[in-house]
Design goal:
Layout (H helix, E strand, L loop, with lengths): L2 H9 L2 H13 L4 H12 L8 H12 L2 H18 L7 H6 L7 H10 L5 H12 L2 H10 L9 H21 L1
Helix pairs in contact: 2-5, 3-4, 3-10, 4-10, 5-7, 7-10, 8-10, 9-10
The structure holds magnesium ion.
């Protein structure tokens, strides 16, 4: 096995990739929605970028073990909050998406980090403007008994990391 291949195996996990994609779908998010966000982020720099390229980079990001671990942790906490299985004060903070909680954004940084610092700007942009699926997730999360406190940041972070991955590719 080449050096490059073994390095990739260390960072990637194919089995957990499928689980993460399924969990995202269960929470109302398709990979195509994330690819749309990535495309939106890169359009001004790479006007000829195709949707398929964006989707390919989203998949590449979700292959990474670090990304999977952050995504699974955040989604699980949202689900536990919805089921009423968290104790106070955490339960209310998550169900109300309390502004000063902040751990949802911190967890998302584990995802943004995988492609270096360009990701931070992209993540901040998405977090502020809430385009596409982020706005929808945010709105649905405000419904009674629903919790998307972690989900919106996870999605935004995956889209931002994919945009960074594209930027690195085209800078080469
Ligand atoms: Mg959040």
């Amino acid at each position: 096995m080449s050096q490059h291949k073994s390095e990739e195996n260390r960072l990637n996990d194919i089995k957990k990739y499928d689980i993460v994609v399924k969990r995202l779908q269960e929470r109302g998010v398709e990979l195509k929605d994330i690819a749309e966000l990535t495309l939106g982020l890169q359009r001004q720099y790479l006007p000829n970028l195709e949707y398929e390229d964006a989707l390919e980079h989203v998949k590449k990001v979700i292959m990474k073990r670090e990304v999977q671990n952050a995504a699974l942790t955040g989604i699980e906490l949202d689900c536990l909050a919805e089921k009423g299985l968290l104790s106070e004060p955490l339960s209310s903070m998550l169900l109300n998406d309390y502004g000063l909680y902040g751990v949802d954004e911190v967890l998302a940084l584990a995802i943004v980090n995988v492609y270096g610092s360009i990701g931070f700007t992209n993540f901040g942009y998405i977090d502020k403007l809430k385009p596409g699926i982020i706005g929808e997730i945010d709105k649905k999360g405000k419904e009674e008994g629903k919790c998307h406190t972690f989900l919106d940041d996870i999605i935004g972070a995956i889209a931002a990391a994919a945009a960074s991955s594209i930027a690195h590719r085209f800078a080469e």
